[in-house]
What we know:
The complex is a heterodimer. Chain A is of the alpha+beta class. Helices cover 54% and strands 17% of the residues of chain A. Chain A is globular, with a radius of gyration of 35 Å. The two termini of chain A are 63 Å apart.
Amino acid sequence: MKKFAFRILQMFCPPDLIEEIEGDLLQRFKKDVSLYGSRKAKRKLFFNTLKFFRPGIISRNRKSSPRPSMIRNYLKIATRNILKQKSYSLLNIIGLSLGMAASLLILQYVKYEKSFDAFHDKPEDIYRIQYNIYHNGELNVESAVAVPAIKNFLKSNFPEVEEATRILAQAGVMAHDEVRFQENKVFYAAPDFLRLFNVNLLEGDRAACLDGTNKIAISQSAAKKYFGEKQSLGQRLTFNGESSFEVTAVFEDLPQNSHFHPDFLMSYATLKGNDPTATEEAWGWYDFYTFVRLQPGTDVAEFQSKLNAQLEKERGEIWRQASARQEFILRPLLDIHLNSKLLYELEPQNQRDGSAVYSLGIVAFFILAIAWINYINLATARSLNRANEVGVRKVMGALKNQLINQFLTESLIMNALACLLAIIIVRLSWSWFSDISGWNIPLSYLNEPGFWTLVGGLFLAGTILSGFYPAIVLSSFKPVAVLKGKLVRSAGGEILRKSLVVIQFSASVFLIIGSLVVYNQLHFMKSQDLGLSIDDTLVLRGPGILQDSTYASKLDGFKKEIQRIAGIKSITASSTIPGHEIFWSSNVRLLTSDPRDNINVAGAAIDQDFINAYGVKLLAGRNFDHTMKHDDRNKRVILNLALCEKLGFRQPKDAVGKLVVFADDTLEVLAVSENFHQMSLKNAVTPILMGLGYSSNFFSLKVETTDYQSLVTSLQEPWDRFFPGNPIEYFFLDEFFDRQYDKDDRFGLVFNLFTFLGILIASLGLFGLASFMALQRTKEIGIRKVLGANVSGIMVLLAHGFMKPVLIANLIAWPLAWLTMDRWLQKFPYHISVNPLYFMGAGVLVIVIAFISVSSQTLKAALTKPADTLKYE
Amino acid sequence: MPKEYLGEFEELILTLVAALQDDAYGAAIADEIETRLKREVNLSAVHVTLYRLEDKGYIKSSLGGGTNERGGRRKRIYTITSAGMAMLKSLKEVRLDLWKMVPQLKLSGGK
């Protein structure tokens, strides 16, 4: 590191200053080592060294540093050159600015996605406990929620744990007098929650507001919703009609870049009152999001193994008896948003796939590279025009360095203009872009210093990367050869130009194939048969306030009433609906099998009408009927095929009539259903066990009308009669289900957009190159025409030179795209295969685009009358 | 009264060069600022300011000895010139004059 840093220093620092600067840096480094440890000190040394890259150092005592008059001259000549060839300059600037704007947008986005949860104090020291359950050595559950006991276990056994908290998520009806809403961002939390997380209290006392029973802290937006302009502190809220809470604090809503957004925090002691052992000491049920903050500088890997050992010591015996194992893994808080895909995530719809986000970063790089290559290509292609200028300058005594400065100045001006344009584009398109991409990043993000650093970085990198090569090439012409007119296009330059075109178009082809595959995969997932029907289904959220002994008869009455309404085919009550993650899971096994052979299974309560209403196919056995009651002594259940197979049955009909043990109950298998997709096709079908039950979670209505407005109105009256005090909330199931694809759709859209931009920029470059080549060969074309060549022959001749790199680009991009996209598709349990048609399609598309951008210029050249081009000779 | 202005940071560095005497070089000055003024400072900023002050003629420099902790590399020791001293003095006097204009009553009887 030290050597590397000093080598960089030597690159830009005047030699007579190096010794003292290095000495000071070393001295500082020694001090930093004792202050921060050697790792951080090394990093500091590196940055301290970089900070010497400033004009006050670089240009000090340099004899060669350009004098102001020279700089003025460079600027003047550069401006003249840019203005002299307006269309060429414009092409360049537009290409560069589009490239920059695209990558600015993407990089800001990536930065935003990476900023999640970083606003807490010492976010890098905060971890969430991931809970894994193994049965017979097989990993059955990987969950974001853990058992309640682990929190105290961590806090009391390990001094490294600075703070620990757990929260329990709830959903239900929150009420204040007549104001009632269904709320699902409700949590039980203890005072330690506010000590661990940066929740800004606007009113109330941080230490006391969650201490004690029946207290509630609410978010600012919740306060507005329930109390309007009134004072919120001291008001009362009732949750699910049973527990009443006093508002003791109001907190600022958590920022958008938080992985969860609580609206209500109810004091944990309220929950504890019900059953202290279950909420503090239990090792069985797992519903608690558990977070810890470790002492700064704790080695997590070491801590993890200490934790594992301690768990083994205390729980090992119990595990062996059940032939199970529990694992508690510390996962960084900062990783949750991009890299966590566990069961029961807090807000899975807001989480992002880290690799998708980073792949957009790669797209940004591609686009930028395409834009820079344009500049390099056009600049070197024009070198012939500038050759005479260089020759004359050299004869007059210009040094090579001065010429390099001259050409770098041009690149600097071009890049500066492009930069300016890019900022304008980003500003103007920001909100529109935020909308279509669903990113919703506040515009204020553009005022942060980070953005301007990025702009500066792109500008500098662009100037140097795109300007340096042309500057070297142009300044190295030999004046004698040039002025004699001997300088013919060098073969090397030609090859380089063509290879750069190849790179550009490989990137384009790659992007096109990528977007084709993404689009088709999304389309495939949405058009697959789910195994049940989600069309024309209106879902009512079940009543939260109720649950007394009369609910069963109430539900029957309500269902009968609803069925009478015109336009409604059927109604069914269930604990879950397609697209709704099942939170209720337990173990199941055959009665005859070893008690330790447990299978993790999701449970659902459905009524007699569910199977028919949703059109779920039964492979064997029969549906629940009305002679059966949900509280029958002999409970019967329906399994899905996945579970049937996991239990070891060859044929579905073998399972019917068998007894299974589910969560300590013995149940008889009534039927086996075809597998259906409870969740989107991004998830594999998992075992599900359906029992007969009167659930109050969801009422699904199959409707036959399009007049939803009057339908909903006619529902209101019976609803209020049967379930008074409950707000009616409804949604359409297909929309609800497809929301699972929302972020994929957006991602696809954004990907397409940037693919389009990339190709646009690449073809701009090709267009410029073609027009330039055609210009150079005007005389040749004239002579050919005089000698009898026809227009099409000349077009082929000219286009030929361009089509070859494009074809080669296809050959390079195909295998790369195949490998990448195949790997991407493997992430989906249900996916398309990579179709050769996509490759052909992308190839043809690129060739057509390239041909169009080339042919307009070549056609013009081919149509020019030879007399016009040759008369000056 | 000199015509030239000194920036706040330049003045600080100049004062420290005068104060540290034989031990006035980049790293030592940076350390001094951090410990005494509790102010984060960029090593490169200190260097650039020192060069600038030297260009303006307020300080002069010579290479001193190297130490082990510097990997044997020599220090550039700065000493204040008489022009620098005059500059500092005049700055101080101006400050003092201005300070005297602040009503003392307000200071003590403000509360």
